[in-house]
Amino acid sequence: MIKYCNECRTFFMDGKDFTYAVRVNSAGYLTRAYYGKKIEHANLSYFNREIVTSFNTGIPGFKKQYATIMQEYSTEYLGDFREPALVPVDERGSRVADLRYAGYYMLPVKPAITGMPTSKGGETLVIRLKDTDTGLAVYLYYTVYEAENIVTRRAVISNGTSGSITLERALSFSEDFYDCDFELMTLWGHHANEKTPEITPLHHGRTTIGNIRGTTSAHHANFTALLRKGTTEEQGEVYSTSLIYSGSHYESVEVDECGRTRVVSGINPESFSWKLASGEEFETPEAVLNYSDEGLGKMTRQYHDFFRANLVNPRWVNERRPVVLNSWEGMHFSFDRDRLFDTIDCLKDSGIELFVLDDGWFGARNNDKAGLGDWVCNETKLPGGLKAIADRCHENGIEFGLWIEPEMVNPDSDLYRAHPDWAIAVPGRDAVPSRNQYVLDFSRKDVVDYIKKAMYDVISTSGASYIKWDMNRPLTENMSYMLPADRQGELQHRYVLGVYELARYLTLEAFPDILFEGCSGGGGRFDGAMLAYFPQIWSSDNTDVDDRTVIQLGTTMVFPMSASSNHVSLSPNIRNGRPSPIATRTNIAYGGTFGYEFDVRKIPESELKGIPAAVEKYHEIDDIVRNGDLYRGTDRTQGNESLISVVSKDKKRAFVVYYQALNPHKMNPVFRIPGLDGKTVYRIKELGLELPGSVLGNLGLGIGRFRNDFGSVLLTLEAVD
Ligand code: GLA
């Protein structure tokens, strides 16, 4: 609910448990008046923490200093001195914008951002700020999601001046807190080790994260959380943000000399500038601001509900997902038609429902040195083409899936030989390869149009009902052959818009009934925007159970469980040599969308035989994976164990995965099960026990010792009528 109090010039935005208030102060600035636990609406102008200090600048005609204003969309160069959200440079070279309140209006439905995924939403507040001296205006958009305790924010920058303006920075939001009594949680990582939660103290000065790789990256999620000190899974205030964007991003948390905290987030200014002609507008990506008064657990559940209801492609959000076998870990590039046929024949009656042919089926792609860009099946390797592989799958009662990497080109490809200027590069300078490939210049419409057609031709004739869209290198050199010098700073953002256009076309327009899985060397482009096209994303190239408990912990900290694609692979793990029992590999993979990735020639007979039962079990619980509430017990970043409890919305069913890394001597695992209804009696199928939720949640369970390291147990719970 959004209300404007005329008398106190304050906008109150209320969710179920929070209030967010912005006030126009006496100098006409839009200021953060309050954000936190729900309060009654009152005139908040009495609250004054505007400390006047020396060596600061004053505001002509007012008693205030710029440096003390709790700016709702910050600018610099007048004396704020903290992180600006906006840096507009006009033709004179001026970087000053003195943004004052200039009115508001309400929209009944949240408008979409042009060319970028936007969450669905209802009533939307738009506040207009205007520069005191020029025609520059900023529109701030706010939408409240009451049940999820979320506010979304974004900005539109409008050039109402008579000349051009170059935006050197146009972030999605800034927000000020009166104090700094927080710790900061981020999700850092790298390839094969994505999204490790890290909690650090705040300090005076700026803590910045983000990246300039052109994608969200495996290195930092576009997420921050301010945790009140002492916050746990169940207690404490958490103010977190998640950016709905898939390119280079920037997050900064700054504590100033007066002990106040500013958070900003948006497109990374280091790899961005945007020239706005007179009369043009720039729309920033949307950011999700999530308030929890009950710790990290509630934050997570609110994100999951929000993304599922408002962003994930509705065609797939509740759809049963097929259990796949992906060819990559099992065969890499070494396959021909006979080997694929042998594999597919082995899958008959195995319980596996779809075979994914990964990299290596097209052009001269016999290793990663050639062929990207030549999207025609290699019929020397695969006589009869993709159709023959798909037919073989269908004869064996399973579906067929295919890997693509549409944004890339190998220099050793017909596409590159024909169009060297289609790659992102500095003209006349040797481009830097990564995995022997270059990035196609998706800022160009002709390039995107060509790839649209190439993809349409191959997918529409392939017989595939699933596509894995990969992206395997960062952007460097950030130049387009097509852009003029003063617009080269636009390359990265234009590239992201090109990716969205291709994704929109393929997933929503051309093939709405094909399930698309996202991937970028694993979870390198895992963000809210991608979910609009890819209801599931390959979380990591690392399938080791112990590493996966942390990768999936970080991934599902923000994103719905069903978005995390998890595969069971062979032991010892191909990446780190760690052995683990098949039961644990299976149980850990149940914490998301479930599948397999192995060489059928190498899997032990006993493991192969167990697959039908494992798949059946998954389908018994997969509706809770898609719709349930995730509760975490202890996790692997804190100790030797991890526990997830996933509970249906009506609290009638649940499943629990308890995992222990090393097997301590003479210790029986004991754990509590969070998230159950206290009064309901649950039958635990695997243990033959019936106990009330309050007992399971407080006393908990003791189970027999594991025989090995990396033991785990899966429990399924059902309410007794
Ligand atoms: C990336 C993906 C893998 C696989 C390979 C193929 O690394 O994450 O799953 O598809 O590319 O080249």
Helicity, in percent? Answer: 10-25%
The set of bound ligands, ions and cofactors reads: alpha-D-galactopyranose
Which descriptor suits the 3D outline? globular
Mean pLDDT across the residues is 97
- Main sheet properties: 10 strands, antiparallel
The helix tally amounts to: 13
Rg on CA atoms, Å: 26 Å
Distance between the termini: 38 Å
Beta percentage is: 25-35%
Structural class: alpha+beta
Beta-strand segment tally: 39
Given as residue ranges, the uncertain stretches (5+ residues, pLDDT < 50) are none
Give the structure's gist in a few sentences:
With 721 residues, the protein is of the alpha+beta class.
Protein architecture, described:
The chain is an alpha+beta fold and 721 residues long. Helix content is 20%, strand content 30%. Strands 6, 7, 8, 9, 12, 13, 15, 16, 20 and 21 form a 10-stranded antiparallel sheet that branches. It has an 8-stranded parallel β-barrel with strand order 22-23-24-27-28-29-30-31, surrounded by 4 helices. A hairpin with a 4-residue loop joins strand 8 (136-145) and strand 9 (150-159). It is globular. The model has no long low-confidence stretch (mean pLDDT 97). Bound molecules: alpha-D-galactopyranose (GLA). The site of alpha-D-galactopyranose has 11 residues, from loops.
Outline the fold blueprint.
Layout: E1 2-5, E2 10-14, E3 18-24, E4 30-37, E5 86-90, E6 99-107, E7 124-131, E8 136-145, E9 150-159, E10 165-170, E11 173-177, E12 182-190, E13 193-201, E14 205-210, E15 223-228, E16 238-244, E17 249-255, E18 261-267, E19 274-276, E20 281-283, E21 286-292, H1 295-310, H2 314-317, E22 324-326, H3 328-331, H4 337-346, E23 354-357, H5 385-395, E24 399-404, E25 408-409, H6 414-418, E26 438-439, H7 445-460, E27 466-469, H8 491-510, E28 515-518, H9 528-531, E29 536-538, H10 545-558, E30 564-568, H11 582-589, E31 593-596, H12 605-627, E32 629-632, E33 641-647, E34 653-660, E35 670-671, E36 681-684, E37 689-692, H13 693-698, E38 701-702, E39 711-719
Parallel strand pairs: 22-23, 22-31, 23-24, 24-27, 27-28, 28-29, 29-30, 30-31
Antiparallel strand pairs: 1-2, 2-3, 3-4, 5-10, 6-7, 7-8, 8-9, 9-20, 9-21, 10-19, 11-18, 12-13, 12-15, 14-17, 15-16, 16-21, 17-18, 25-26, 32-33, 33-34, 34-39, 35-38, 36-37, 36-39
The structure holds alpha-D-galactopyranose.
The site of alpha-D-galactopyranose has 11 residues, from loops.
